Amino acid sequence: MSTNRAAMLEKLADLDAQHAVAVAGGGEKYVERHHARGKLTARERIELLLDPGSAFLELSPLAGWGSDFTVGASVVTGIGVVEGVECLISANDPTVKGGASNPWTVKKIFRASQVAEENNLPTISLVESGGADLPTQKEIFIPGGRLFRDLTRASARRQPTIALVFGNSTAGGAYVPGMSDYTVFVRGGAKVFLGGPPLVKMATGEESDDESLGGAEMHARVSGLADYLAEDEHDAIRIGRRIVARLNRRKPELRTRDACFAPGISTSKQGGHRISGDSSAAFAEPDADPEGLLDLVPTDLKEPFDPREVIVRVVDGTSERNGRPFDEFKPLYGTSLVTGWAQLHGRPIGILANAQGVLFSEEAQKATQFIQLANQSDTPLLFLHNTTGYMVGKDYEQGGIIKHGAMMINAVSNSTVPHLSVIMGASYGAGNYGMNGRAYDPRFLFTWPSAKSAVMGPAQLAGVLSIVARAAAEAKGQAYDEEGDAGMRAMVEQMVEEQSLPYVLSGMLYDDGVIDPRDTRTVLAICLSVIENAPIKGAEGFGVFRP
């Protein structure tokens, strides 16, 4: 076994453990209590909602990692196929503090709403939440109003919103069904009111009970908030599926024969992103075994690796229809950035992949041209990151590295074809921006367990601080504390190293999930299918390119 493979397998074992924490929700005690009440968990509800044998691409499963809140942020979000329609699904986890929303819950749902908007997806909310986590209300109340705004705007865009209410949906949470296009309430389970009996008693002196104030039957017969009254949770899910079946949803353009990623792709019962391949679609499997992806990333990210070895294990292989798996563009120019055309599950894609880490002026200009070409042909782009950033130094500054880097970032910023990003190794400095990092709104961004992202590498950042401190001491005529400097550099290096790790970034929702490299092809295929729900059209113009 290679050193690289052994290191990656160790990281993947840890990743499985981290995903298991998210899947566990509130833990065995609270799951058992929930089941004892005759209720399904969030993930069980999702599994029953989805078409049999179809996939569920979970988004942000490690949200809140490293914070004081339970990993997963008390909500499960992702994309799944319901009655042949790709839908954004959001499910409160009532085993975690009754499904109460904390600051990370809000951010996670914001991200899910963005995915639904950009990709023209219906939204299905599986509701059971006690509302806001009151101790953190100051971090939730003001930004949280966007949750309801997003629902109403989705409806205005004709992106259907469906709420299946299984339990509590109180206070502000009552507006989730209130602002959804379709609502299904479970008899004896759903409780939807702005203020519960204790609050009503305090505010008005009125005596009331849960059912008369906000029960499912009352809302179905009296208030009209419930469109459908379900007998139990299974019935609510059945009704939800029938609602989707009647939406008359069709993709605006179908670039391949596949309508969605439903056939033949399934997800493991363990959560996370281990997803098997689609054996039924008409495309050639990769020419090289995806298992080999575990051998490619060096344990020391300063060592380069050839991204062509990644590409050949991710894209469709050689076939009579497809020809070569990867048609490289400008292979002899700007060689530390690999660009070219391929197909992935039969869908066309343009690829930009860092080869040697550093981006020079030639690479930036090459990338700019390639992005423009992709926009002319309405071809989605895939960015594979392993970059330490743009090159620095007198010769490079005089050669125009700033304006050329700006040109590349301009192209990325104004490109309107869908972008997908995968951070394989390093993604430092402005290289992260030029390669379509999170700040540049890729449709989806995933990281490998080997990924690291920061303003610069730990040693470089610590070294810069040391140089600045040394210069300050010299300017004051003071002796420099070499022992203190060594301690400072070690502390900074450790801090930056820890803050650059994929779990930290994923916990802050700077990606859509940390994935096993071997799943990259299938995850990207799902994403490419999802983006076809909205028209794919390249930019008609870019910002000013400085000559």
TrEMBL record:
Residues 285-532 form the CoA carboxyltransferase C-terminal domain. Residues 8-259 form the CoA carboxyltransferase N-terminal domain. Pfam families: Carboxyl_trans. Residues 265-284 are annotated as: Disordered. PROSITE patterns: COA_CT_CTER (PS50989), COA_CT_NTER (PS50980). Gene3D superfamilies: 2-enoyl-CoA Hydratase, Chain A, domain 1. This is Acyl-CoA carboxylase subunit beta.
